[in-house]
Design goal:
The structure holds two protein chains of two kinds.
Chain A: E1 7-11, H1 12-23, E2 27-30, H2 37-48, E3 55-58, H3 62-75, E4 80-83, H4 85-100, E5 106-111, H5 125-129, E6 136-139, H6 143-157, E7 166-171, E8 179-183, H7 187-194, H8 221-250, E9 257-260, E10 267-270, H9 275-288, E11 293-298, E12 300-302, H10 306-313, E13 318-323, H11 333-342, E14 349-354, H12 364-380, E15 387-389
Parallel strand pairs in A: 2-3, 4-5, 5-7, 6-7, 10-11, 10-13, 13-14, 14-15
Antiparallel strand pairs in A: 1-8, 6-12, 9-11
Chain B: E1 32-36, H1 46-50, E2 58-59, E3 62-63, H2 76-80, E4 90-94
Antiparallel strand pairs in B: 1-4, 2-3
The chains are: A alpha/beta, B alpha+beta.
């Protein structure tokens, strides 16, 4: 068991910066962008005060930040970066290269809406935009989860069966800038838990010259893709194993998704990140009224645990998947995953609500409206509109 | 050569044998072929410097005949060749003539 530490009050950004300090990466290339800037602010003060040995590279754009991260990781270093929204969007082409080169880079992605219209507040359009980039994606409800998942990230990404980059998501402003009480681990415990990094085929091993990023034509390209998928398949088990070890150490238990009062639930909501906190309160209220309500909060979005989620939802009567990101002309990205997961079970009626775009608040009474509608759908078995926007003025 | 399956690929597609481009013969791409006229060659080695591949082998600080397995016939060497008294030491000829 880890050494007990006192409870502190910090913002989500400070929590992640503290995790970065304890992880002490070799290199951190970054270009600050709201709302992730606080991570860089805190971290660069750690560098200035000699609290870490990290080489911070202040670059001229996020494209360069990810390029430098790839270079440093390929050289053999442990690398981290932080970004949001347009910053992540500018990294996009390099994100594929990081995963294709199998570099276990850690990104703290502080979720923020994409332009246009220009907006700085929290939604998941950035995180969903990197869905197919080959990165492991973890989502966090609060500062404690953001800290814990960041501490676990290198153990997952660097595992020999995985070796993939990892993004730890938290909601911009709602989590990144709000002060919450939480607990850090001691530096010693983190150091012991994370361990030494041993790079595979690092470029700085100059006695063994090598070439990375070689051209691969149609005769081999698909084999390389297949290997990457396999690494993701392995990641599922590794996330579970690392989380179990973390739970033993800290007492804080994380599964691939959180099943909140889900066991016997007939009316189920599914949501990522901070909205889950509000939904849990309302689930409790409805439980008191005798409604069998529950919440499924995915933690691991890539790889997505279809079988496990499907099994957890198969006895529900109606499921409302709440997406804080949109796919114009399509269903919400989380809805598409949940629909795929429950498909083999043919049971629950599933529908989709888009909420909270550009940081619009999701209030308890909005959640109540969704639960009421889900109760109605469970009763009738009929959905009026599969995808609908809530809190939008008509 | 039997192609590898996905389980047999090197990690991240990294090429661990440095310099193995030498094993990849690219001379068949050529439509124009450089011919070396030794009596006009002053051994300035401009051709060796300018060659974008490794098609001009040098032995004892002097160039020898082309490595046609890797020469793609770009003609840069012929362009740069100063020759001797106005006579080029490299000329480009159509392949197959």
């Amino acid at each position: 068991m880890a050494v007990a530490t006192k409870i502190v009050a910090v913002t989500g950004n400070q929590a992640v910066a503290e995790a970065f300090r304890q992880l002490n990466p070799d290199v951190m290339p970054a270009y600050p962008i709201t709302p992730s800037t606080g991570i860089m602010e805190s971290f660069t003060s750690f560098v200035s005060n000699g609290k870490v040995d990290t080489e911070v590279i202040l670059v001229e754009s996020e494209h360069s930040a990810m390029s430098a991260a790839i270079g440093a990781s390929a050289a053999g270093g442990r690398v981290a970066t932080a970004t949001s929204s347009q910053g992540m969007a500018l990294m996009w082409e390099m994100l594929h290269i990081a995963s294709g080169y199998r570099l276990p880079i850690l990104m703290s992605l502080v979720n923020r809406a994409l332009s246009a219209p220009l907006n700085i507040h929290g939604d998941h359009s950035d995180g969903m935009g990197m869905r197919d980039c080959g990165w492991i994606q973890l989502f966090c409800e609060n500062a404690q989860e953001a800290y814990d998942n960041t501490i676990m990230a290198y153990r997952i990404a660097e595992h020999k069966d995985v070796r993939l980059p990892i993004a730890v998501n938290m909601d911009g402003f709602i989590i990144s800038h709000s002060i919450e009480s939480m607990q850090f681990m001691t530096d010693e415990d983190v150091k012991k838990f994370v361990g030494e990094y041993i790079a595979i085929d690092p470029l700085l091993d100059i006695d063994n010259p090598k070439s990375i990023g070689a051209l691969v034509l149609p005769d081999y390209y698909m084999e390389h893709n297949r290997v990457q998928h396999e690494a993701m398949v392995h990641a599922k088990k590794v996330v579970a194993d690392v989380s179990a070890e973390f739970a033993k150490l800290t007492g804080r238990k994380y599964e691939l998704f959180e099943a909140y009062r889900l066991e016997d639930a007939e009316v189920v909501l599914v949501a990522l990140n901070s909205a889950a906190g509000t939904i849990k309160d309302e689930v409790d209220r409805y439980r008191e009224k005798g409604v069998k309500a529950g919440l499924l909060k995915p933690r691991m979005f890539r790889p997505f645990p279809y079988e496990e989620v499907g099994a957890a939802l198969k006895n529900a009567k109606a499921i409302c998947v709440m997406d804080r990101a949109d796919s114009y002309g399509g269903y919400g990205p989380l809805f598409m995953e949940i629909a795929s997961a429950v498909l083999p079970h043919r049971g629950p009626v599933t529908f989709n609500k888009i909420y909270g775009l550009g940081g619009r608040d999701l209030m308890p009474h909005h959640v109540d409206q969704v639960i009421d509608e889900t109760i109605e759908v469970a009763k009738t078995g009929k959905v009026k509109m599969v995808k609908e926007y809530i809190t939008v003025r008509n | 050569m039997k192609q590898k399956n996905w389980k047999e690929l090197p990690h991240a597609g990294t090429v661990l044998t440095a310099g193995n481009a030498n094993e990849y013969k690219t001379g068949s791409w050529r439509s124009l072929k450089p011919r070396w006229i030794e009596e006009n060659c002053i051994q300035c080695l401009f051709c060796w410097i300018y060659c974008p591949d490794t098609a001009i082998p040098v032995k004892d600080e002097k160039r020898v005949n082309f490595d046609y397995d890797h020469c793609k016939g770009c003609g840069v060497c012929a362009m740069e060749c100063p020759g001797k008294k106005g006579n080029k030491a490299i000329v480009m000829e159509e392949e197959g003539k």
